[in-house]
Amino acid sequence: MAASSSTGSATEPPGLETQWREIDNLNQQQLRAGDSWYLLDKRWYDQWKEYVHAGDQNSSSYPGKIDNTELYEDLDSYHLKERLSENEDFVLVPAEAWHKLLSWYDMMDNQPPLERKVVDLPSTVKVEVYPVEIYLCLSSNMESTVSACFSRADKIHAIHQKIRQHFNVSETAESRLWMRSTDTSSERLRNLNMTILDSCLSSGMTVIMEIRNADGTWPTSRPQIMRNSADEDSYRGPPGVCGLTNLGNTCFMNSALQCLSNTPPLTEYFLRNSYLEELNFTNPLGMKGEIAEAYADVIKQMWSGRHYSVVPRVFKTKVGHFASQFLGYQQHDSQELLSFLLDGLHEDLNRVKKKEYIELRDADGRPDQEVAEEAWRNHLRRNDSVIVDTFHGLFKSTLVCPECNKVSVTFDPFCYLSVPLPVSKERVMEVFYVSLDPTAKPTQYRLIVPKAGRVIDLCTSLSQATGVPPNQMAVADVFNHRFYRIYQADESLSCILDRDDIFVYQLSSGCVDQDGEEVVMAIYMRERSHYRDYGSGSNNYGTSLFGHPLLMSVPRAQCTREDLYQLLLKRLARYVHPLDPSEEVEEEEDEEDLYKAQTNGVSDDEGEEDSEEAGPSKKEEETQESGQAEEQNNCQSEASPSSEGEEKAEEEESSSEPDRGSSTEEGQSACGSTDTNSQDATDGDQSAGVEPSGKEEEDEDEDEEEEEEAASCAQANKRLPGRRRNTEKQKKALFTIQAVNSNGTTERGMGEVDGGFSFSSQPYIAIDWDPDMKKKYYNENEAEKYIKHQSMDVPHQQITVQLQECIELFTTVETLEEENPWYCPTCKKHQLATKKLDLWSLPEVLIIHLKRFSYTKYSREKLDTIVEFPLRDLDFSGFLLKKTVNSTEPPCRYDLISVSNHFGGLRDGHYTSYARNKDNGQWYYFDDSKVTYAREEQIVTSAVYLLFYQRQDKIRQPTVPPPVPSSSQPENHISSQTHDGMDGASSCVSMETD
Known about the structure:
Elements: H1 16-26, E1 36-41, H2 42-54, E2 90-94, H3 95-105, E3 115-121, E4 124-127, E5 132-138, E6 141-150, H4 156-166, E7 175-180, E8 186-189, E9 206-211, E10 243-244, H5 251-261, H6 264-271, H7 290-302, E11 309-310, H8 313-322, H9 334-348, H10 368-382, H11 386-391, E12 393-400, E13 407-414, E14 417-420, E15 426-434, E16 443-450, H12 455-466, E17 473-479, E18 482-486, E19 501-506, E20 518-533, E21 538-555, E22 557-559, H13 561-571, E23 585-586, H14 591-598, H15 604-614, H16 618-633, H17 664-667, H18 702-710, H19 713-719, E24 730-731, E25 736-739, E26 752-753, E27 756-758, E28 764-769, H20 771-777, H21 780-783, E29 787-788, E30 800-802, H22 803-810, E31 814-815, E32 822-824, E33 829-831, E34 834-841, E35 845-851, E36 853-855, E37 860-862, E38 866-868, E39 874-875, E40 893-904, E41 909-916, E42 923-927, E43 930-933, E44 944-951, E45 973-975
Parallel strand pairs: 5-9, 10-11, 14-35, 15-19, 16-29, 20-28, 30-38
Antiparallel strand pairs: 1-2, 1-3, 3-4, 5-6, 7-8, 7-9, 12-13, 12-34, 15-16, 17-18, 17-19, 20-21, 22-27, 23-24, 25-28, 26-27, 31-34, 32-33, 35-44, 36-37, 39-40, 40-41, 40-44, 41-42, 42-43, 43-45
Helix pairs in contact: 1-2, 5-9, 7-8, 16-18
């Protein structure tokens, strides 16, 4: 694990505008192989941008220390989470930008930097966010493995050296390497100068070093190392009924491959080796035949009838070579992979060796039939392949200028139809409602709101269920025990995702208006933690957030510390137990414990040592004590309000230095800040309660003491010693209060004036708990309880539409978006024209892409609408403009042959497929390496993503009878990646011999 990048303290940053300009300029750098870039939590980065754009260094949006917690799998190994997405979970910044941010803001203690290298890969240069993690071992002891990370640009020689170093293998020992995938089969790594990418090594695989025996033989030549007796070589099964091994998030690829594999005309083309005669090695738009050859190899293995499952590693590598977006092992879209593959196969197999330039003509009033035939002929002059023969159709595009009514008609080829799904104008949202009644548990509601509505519409819908006026509600997104965002009433609901935890808080009417008597305060719960800083040898205290945050109305001005403490006690009454009367008063003999609690437990030695440096000596402290006692009578206790009639105790001096851009008075209360001694994890480099923020002056004579006694409490607080001398009865507190930034991580000034607080903007405070007090008085189980409203029991109605409706939407007139205008040749300018698509001719195999993933500028969602579609007799005659004029025209009826499914949401999910075997007519379900029988009634689900239809006149009857599923086989299991009883971790491994 890399060492922590925390520097212990941040340097003074430049002005906010300068910060933004410097970082923004650095982020424009081009990627260069070998450079370092760093991952930065997207939420922290957004918070920083909000802070620097606010232009106010005292803003509550101050981001605090860099915190990448949400990017780590855990805080022990600090491994990066899987399936993180750039610009959603993290941003990448160049090394210089990272070091600037680090010097300005520091980093959470013990977190290592997430440094990644820029690598030069085929067809692209990119930051390698996820290096390849490979397990290393010796063939003599395959139970003992070690993991190591490598770049895909590293050579096999680097792995070879790593194994030698770790297992202390002599440089003179003769050795060879094998790579083993999860299915226990192994392949020899012969070329040490080949890159890891070219060798098809992926994360999770094992590289084994085999050392030659003293007698000159290799261990693999011995009988006990030979293949398992249950070898796949003995398998005989139906051709095409074969799984595909998941190489690591490659289910999207496997699903698309299964659909294409079960497309009869394409598969038969490759099985007949027809592709060998049509490989185009000179096409500049192609891949030198490599994609076609790799695809052919996969198809031949799948249809040999000799494999339970095929490992498409070489094919995956070739795809990554020519399409950098598919490099690595992140999840992708099966339709995007399919689109690339069909285009790649077409160019690799294009019969046109030299493409001629063809000038496109507009229809100019000519008959559609004439223009369509011309367009198709022109298309074939440049594009002629088995892909065109099988998948290409023609549609008519009509554009109308809104200004001059110019009509432009063109006919364009297509390879698949991307059809929209009917979208509801309403949306279901689930929220937690927090009542103003402190004894009431939060209630979860399911609401119907306008999809294009605003936050006020959400409040209006909730108001109908609760009776609370919508203008007395505050809506917030709660994430990781803090407010990720507090929404304004006029914000669009599209910025709220379904996965967000939305809380709606009831507020009193006094804070509704901007100039009202109350203001909304954000409240976080924090628990103090103690840790030892071995670098400095001192004890430090941090805090960690817990529980659910709150929004509460507080007086805008003149809210005393006692008022605030009592308001918080009342608000937390449901799950915070009050102090017993016997515990409310702490006697003089408990002074040492009270001091430690309020200074976060600074030890005697540390407190005295620091006091000698920063404040008066113990003798001087005693001298001051009598003169300051009267001043303390007019000040409130830092830990809690004092009871009426009780004599106030001396207050400990504030330990924190003033916050960035705030005065000392703003950073402290009249008698000390709200727990400025409780140092956040981000401020752990300062010892609590020992370093005065104001300048200490010694009392030299009684006149000076009298002047000091007459000073205000704020001035008295500046001169208080760093150590409490408690001689009076002190009321005990459950918690202390600290002003923080909006992340709840960095302490801020409270803005106390004349003995009371005055809030001009959104304040954030933290309730800091000592662990023992929290354990005794805070009921975590009760705090987590909530009530489900009856609306949650109403089943979510699944929307069902017909496939024909989607096709009708595809042919509906629409207006072009501003980002994609049309240039009108008559007006001589770009226009937002109307556009209409119509189907003219259809291919033998029609691929229909259901556009389930909706991406707009303001929202993203996946539509789980059930689309009902026929398995047989899909009739397109009603959608075709080109009418059948004679009996030689092909029919317009199609039968389903395969389906690609997507389960899950936007961020993650799983792809599978259904397909009908061309030889026996049986439907199968393909889930990576697993294959099972399927029934036709199972196919129509809300997960259907891609539909493959074949025209009825091209469908051949099955050549063999369908198999009879055995009832003795669980789930009608056909094949799997590994044999029963074969242990993937076994020391026996199959290796080829020289």
